[in-house]
Design goal:
This protein is an alpha/beta fold. It is built from three helices and 28 strands. The protein is elongated and about 80 Å long.
Length: about 400
């Protein structure tokens, strides 16, 4: 009997201790959240008005969610125009998994203490006014799946350590900042990466050679940087590509048109680089490709007739090159085309009949070519045509 009583007393004691710990933790986490609120200097939409000392963070605080044990698991406050700085106190939320604060006016840097948030798997701080260097400690967070620091004012280089332990990372966006230097070779450590966006920065150097060793990589955007070198062979083995944007860089040599045959490709932008040579004959084209832009290069030769195999094209832009020959006579087979831009080339001959069957066509740019003959009458069937 005494033994059973002792067991019951021990069990009750454990429950009491656990309840006290949870209660104490909850109180502590409330203080952490109120300290975060204290660092907000402008809250024009009263988004944090429910964050009061008498409230329960799990039930009452807007944008806060807790797990089944009562610990803060998510902070989601997006497009609320909050002004101020990030509070270092958030490093005390040891169960925090999602931190989403995009679309605010937060300034300053990311506190170093956030390196202790080992449970974090999503960080979205995009569209703020954050500045300084991208912290290396983010690369030590073992659970990160999603990292978006785009549309801020970060400067310096992308730290190689950012991709030190990125085995679980699926998407990274650092676009629209003021980052310089090269793309770290350590990016290829992210074996489960599905996409990255480093566009609209000042990056230079070459694209890491092992990039296509990432088996599920489907989204690559490096637009508007100063990257250089040859990329034709580099991307030819990226079999999972859906979106490839190399526009407005300094790439040279042959353009990577081999990716057109990749079955999942929907978007290919190679515009405004230094690509030269012919557009090769297209033996296969993704049935999902909607955008093909290779304008503003040094491409020569003729537009291959195989372009008509890209049945889902909505935009075909090849202007500002050195293309010759004629407009493919079967181009009207691309019935979904909305924009065709072929201007500023050396293309001659006549405008093919049949453009009238491309009924969704809104823009047909054929200016500054060497065309002869009349504009086909059936082009009047293009009811949405805004420019010719």
């Amino acid at each position: 009997m005494r033994r059973h009583r002792a067991i019951h007393l021990s069990h009750a004691l454990l429950c009491t201790v656990f309840c006290c710990l949870v209660t104490a933790s909850a109180v502590t986490e409330k203080e952490i959240l109120l300290e975060f609120k204290g660092n907000i200097t402008d809250d024009p939409r009263a988004s944090l008005s429910s964050w009061v000392s008498s409230g329960n963070p799990c039930n009452d605080y807007k944008g806060v969610s807790c797990n089944s044990e009562g610990f803060v698991e998510r902070i989601v406050l997006w497009n609320t125009s909050l002004g101020g700085v990030l509070s270092s106190s958030l490093s005390g939320l040891k169960r925090l998994r999602i931190l989403t604060l995009f679309g605010n006016r937060l300034s300053g840097g990311i506190p170093e203490g956030y390196g202790d948030l080992h449970s974090l798997w999503k960080i979205n701080l995009s569209s703020n006014a954050l500045s300084g260097s991208i912290p290396e400690f983010i690369g030590d967070l073992p659970s990160i799946r999603f990292l978006d620091l785009s549309k801020n004012g970060f400067t310096g280089e992308i730290p190689s350590a950012l991709f030190r332990y990125c085995y679980k990372t699926k998407f990274v966006s650092l676009s629209h900042n003021n980052l310089a230097g090269s793309i770290p070779a350590s990016l290829v450590n992210c074996f489960n990466l599905e996409g990255f966006d480093f566009s609209f920065n000042n990056l230079s150097g070459v694209v890491p050679s092992g990039l296509c060793g990432i088996p599920r990589l489907s989204y690559v955007s490096l637009r508007n940087n100063a990257l250089s070198g040859s990329v034709q062979e580099l991307v030819s083995s990226c079999q999972s590509l859906e979106h490839l944007d190399f526009g407005s860089n300094r790439f040279t040599d042959l353009a990577p048109f081999s990716v057109l045959g990749m079955q999942n490709l929907t978007y290919l932008n190679l515009s405004y680089n230094g690509f030269g040579g012919h557009i090769p004959e297209i033996s296969a084209c993704s049935g999902r490709l909607q955008i093909l832009d290779a304008s503003g290069n040094f491409l020569d030769g003729e537009i291959p007739s195989g372009i008509t195999k890209c049945k889902s094209l909505k935009l075909l832009a090849l202007e500002l090159n050195r293309l010759e020959g004629n407009i493919p006579v079967d181009i009207q087979e691309l019935r979904g085309l909305i924009v065709i831009k072929l201007g500023n080339n050396s293309i001659g001959g006549m405008i093919p009949k049949g453009f009238g069957s491309v009924e969704l066509l809104e823009l047909l740019d054929l200016h500054n070519l060497n065309l002869a003959g009349q504009i086909p009458e059936d082009i009047s069937n293009c009811k949405f045509l805004l420019g010719l």
